[in-house]
Design brief:
The protein is of the alpha/beta class. It has a domain of about 150 residues: Rossmann fold (3-Layer(aba) Sandwich). The chain starts with a helix and ends in a 25-residue tail after the last helix.
Length: about 250
């Protein structure tokens, strides 16, 4: 008998700001189809049974209508220069779905996205540097499903540096830590639970580097999608439980 997971493929929406690609010839040369399409192709490569679609900032409702989110099991998010352009009502909508059970994968500069800061409740600030330096990502939790298929570490020849302190609440689980050629380290793969939903932050992905074509990066994102898929659905309705499951003896007050 087929498993429920095999019968119900993961429905993934890859959300991209799609702004750098339109404004920078350098970024457009690296990602001629947009970063969101490169990320989506990577998910399809490692999860061929998944139903993967894309959405961008420029679409009505940023491509994240209530109907679209209701039909999404896992949402990936890449944003940078237009965080302030994301409407608060859309942030409210995404937050509601995460609390109900939708998975959220936040990538690179999405650390400053409204939805990430909202769900974590902190500034999510960090230090950074653009110097074309090597990044080495160490697996610090080799038994975690997000690290499946990854060796003790992998390297990206050129990336933007993110360094500590990273103003996030302590992760529920830490999967990766990065070391950079300049000496900094960074908590680059972090997991949280919010409501019934799972959140994973993954650091690599500066727009001027071909990071989202890297096989290890693609594998990690696909693994994270599988890990974050809903385990159930919880609707936060705060009902008044007037009828108790057992009889209650009235007591004088």
């Amino acid at each position: 008998m087929q498993s429920l997971r095999a019968m119900n493929p993961i429905r993934v929406t890859v959300w991209g700001e799609n702004t750098h690609e339109k404004k920078s010839p350098v970024v457009a040369a690296v990602y001629p189809q947009g970063m969101h399409n490169a990320i989506a192709d990577g998910v399809r490569e490692f999860l061929p049974g998944a139903q993967v679609t894309t959405a961008t900032l420029q679409e009505p409702d940023h491509g994240l209508t209530e109907e679209r989110l209701a039909a999404t099991d896992v949402l990936t998010w890449w944003g940078h220069m237009a965080h302030d352009k994301v409407e608060d009502r859309i942030v409210d909508r995404v937050q509601k779905r995460v609390l109900e059970g939708m998975g959220l994968i936040v990538l690179h500069s999405g650390h400053y996205a409204k939805i990430f800061k909202r769900l974590l409740g902190t500034t999510c600030s960090l230090t950074w540097r653009e110097a074309d330096e090597k990044e080495r990502l160490w697996v610090c939790n080799p038994g975690h499903p997000i690290a499946r298929g990854i060796d003790r570490y992998f390297e990206l020849p050129q990336e933007e540096m993110y360094g500590e302190p990273f103003a996030i609440p302590a992760p529920d689980e830490q999967v990766f830590i990065s070391w950079f050629e300049g000496g900094e380290v960074f908590r680059s793969g972090c997991c949280w639970h919010r409501g019934n939903g799972k959140i994973f932050y993954f650091r690599p992905g500066h727009e001027t580097y071909p990071t989202y074509f890297d096989k290890n990066v693609r594998r990690v994102i696909a693994n994270a999608v599988e890990w974050a898929r809903p385990q159930g659905v919880w609707i936060d309705s705060c009902p008044n439980a007037k009828v108790a499951p057992e009889p209650i003896k009235s007591k004088a007050r």
